[in-house]
Amino acid sequence: MTEPIIRSLLETDLYKFTMWQALFTSAYNDNSAEYRFVCRHAPAQPLAELKEAVEREVEHLCSLRFREEELDYLRSLRYMKSSFVDFLSIFRLQRRFIRIETKGDALEIVASGPQMHVMFFEIFILAIVGQLHAQRFPQEAALAEGRRRLAAKVERLRAFEHEAGELADMHPFGLADYGLRRRFSSAWHEEVVTTLMTQAPRFFKGTSNVYLAMRLGLTPIGTVAHEFMQTFQAVHDVPLRNSQKAALESWVQTYRGDLGVALTDVVGMDAFLRDFDLYFAKLFDGLRHDSGDPEAWGEKALAHYAALRIDAHTKLLVFSDGLNVDKSIALWRRFAGRTQTAFGIGTNLTHDFGPQFPALEIVMKLVRCNGRPVAKLSDSPGKTICDDATFLAYLRSVFEVAA
Q1: Averaged over 238-262, what is the pLDDT?
Q2: How many domains does the chain have?
Q3: Are residues 340 and 208 in the same domain?
Q4: How far is CA 47 from the centre of its chain?
Q5: Which of the four, 98, 146, 225, 356, has the lowest number of CB atoms within 10 Å?
Q6: What span, in angstroms and rounded, lies between the C-alpha atoms of 111 and 381?
Q7: Domain containing 37: what range?
């Protein structure tokens, strides 16, 4: 019998837990929500063919419960609240809240119901679909190419050690694995992470995969994603113009100094900075880039800190959009003399097998909350997500973002 793709309910990104907890402990824990799977570019082999296999994996997923050792691990993270972990001890994903269908060659997956429940499907669904698709490749040839490319990454990092050591006036370089959602397979993900932690320990700082972090003794890494900020576009007592500030304030009140990296591109960097005033700039440790030109973004962030008379050396810029090792090093060279930096690499670590074995460009995003549309404008046009053109236009108008 083939081993299920998802082995544990910890096998998701850390920020799913941190956002989940922030909503659980807030006044918005009774939200309803809809999350929709999107494949940005149709693959050569139709995803519709995977429907039955996806359904089997989801049935298994919905049978899982958190084990005692997993709950103990979550309790060991200082920012996890006992009341939330107690809730997780009785939690189980419910099959009735997720619909899996086909439309032509496309696979349609929609999770809808209480947000406190359906928000947890996202990463599991992406990992399941991605691995089932990858299983259609010739495995031996793909893994041989993947290992060759992984070895080249390790050699690049080893060569970089001498250079990084000579630049004493720069903040140190570090990267983390953010690749769970588009990984080739769970086994390959573990091989990549184990290789980096043993062969490039100076630079490898941890993983977003909570299950691997627990098993391998690594630091679990992550703070917040777009869905948390988007949620505040649709709660009853927050005007749309104040949605970013309300989300940031909610985060501050939940974590009170922990997990202090803010995501900037839900309605675009310029609109974000208009809301990220001296109060928030002092309370948050730094900012995360996830779309648009990373160099232009970094310069805007540093200019904003300078205008607020905040020493950028005390702040952190996290880069996480489409990175590889070379891009990360180039960004480090540009910014590490002026601020702290960190780099989250996803697909290029866990699904880099060359053009003959491409990763799917898939997401599963919040599209409605409390019966109202929500949107992610992004700083990259191809990443904008909204199924309601009227709301999207209104959001642009409210935040003064050009189409």
Answers
A1: 97
A2: 2
A3: yes
A4: 23
A5: 356
A6: 25
A7: 14-136+359-376
Q: 251 and 334: one domain?
A: yes
Residue 288's SS3 state is strand
What does the alpha-carbon distance between residue 332 and residue 172 come to, in Å, rounded to a whole number?
9
Residues 157-201: pLDDT tens digits? 999 988 776 776 789 999 999 999 999 999 999 999 999 999 999
pLDDT above 80: residue 383: no
Please, which pLDDT band fits residue 36 given cuts at 50, 70 and 90? Answer: very high
- Distances from the Cα of 331 to the Cαs of 153, 155, 179, 360, in angstroms? 17, 19, 19, 26
Average pLDDT over the chain, rounded to an integer: 96
Helices (H), 362-402: 389-399
> Do 51 and 63 have their domain in common?
yes
Instruction: Determine the residue type at 229.
Output: M
Closest CA to 371 of 15, 21, 30, 23: 30
CB 77 within 8 A of CB 220: yes
β partners of residue 368: 34, 373
**Buried (b) or exposed (e) across 249-278, using 16+ Cβ within 10 A?**
bbbbebbeeebbbbbbbbbbbebbbebbee
Q: What is the DSSP letter of 381?
A: G
Model confidence over 116-169: pLDDT tens digits?
999 999 999 999 999 999 999 999 999 999 999 999 999 999 999 887 767 767
Clarify whether residues 87 and 154 are in a common domain.
Answer: no
Q: Do 117 and 97 form a contact (C-beta atoms < 8 A)? A: yes
Q: Per the domain annotation, does 217 fall within a domain? A: yes
Asked if residues 383 and 291 have their Cβ atoms less than 8 Å apart, the reply is yes
β-sheet bridge partners, residue 175: 204, 343
- Does 6 map to a domain? no
Please check whether residue 315 lies inside any domain of the structure: yes
Token code pair at residue 297 = 């973004």
Report yes or no on 302 lying in a domain: yes
CATH number where 308 lies = 3.20.140.10
Show Cβ contacts of residue 32 under 8 Å, excluding neighbours closer than 6 positions. Answer: 112, 113, 114, 115, 369, 370, 371
Query: Contacts by 216-219 with C-beta closer than 8 Å and gap 24+?
Result: 216/190, 218/193
Mean pLDDT of 214-237: 97
Q: Which residues contact 241 (CB under 8 A, 6 or more apart)?
A: 398, 399
Residues 42 and 95 in one domain: yes
117 and 216 belong to one structural domain: no
State which H helix or E strand residue 60 sits in: helix 51-61
Q: What is the pTM of this model?
A: 0.96
Q: Quick one: tokens of 325?
A: 């090792």
Q: Are residues 188 and 261 in the same domain?
A: yes
